[in-house]
Design goal:
Elements (H helix, E strand, L loop, with lengths): L2 H26 L3 H18 L9 H23 L21 H12 L2 H11 L4 H8 L3 H19 L2
Helix pairs in contact: 1-2, 1-3, 1-5, 2-3, 3-5, 5-7, 6-7
Amino acid sequence: MTEAEQKYIFEEWLNLHKGIIFKIVKAYSANVSVQDDLFQEIVIQLWNSIPSFKKESSASTWIYRVSLNTAIKWANNERKHQQSQPLEDMQHVLHESDIQIDERLTWLYEEIYRLDEIDRSVTLLLLDGFSYKEMASILGITESNVGVKINRIKKQLIYKSKK
């Protein structure tokens, strides 16, 4: 693959699928300055992954896989080096100032952030309409495990929403 081909694919992926990256960044970090770092790390990993993309799955599935794996690894490294801060102390990010923010969506992202890494990943994939089979493939777990996790997450979120 030439560098020009890689650059073309990379730019196409970012133009079509940057929303995936933004969602993952927002779900894996509540700190504004750290979100920028995570975004850059994911973009670097996507660039590096292009030559190994075999088109056995869709580009969005591949982008999810690379982005989630990068975010999980990054979150584990960050946890070792920094103390976490309460979400109430963090600024909202990845939104434009002229867009009204739905408080329900803010609540949902805060709850997703509180989930463990795999449950966060399952939730984001579910919200984007991936099938159990696709989620299992991206996360490296069984379809039945995906189903169990989804049911537990839904029960947990319903319970928390009634508080």
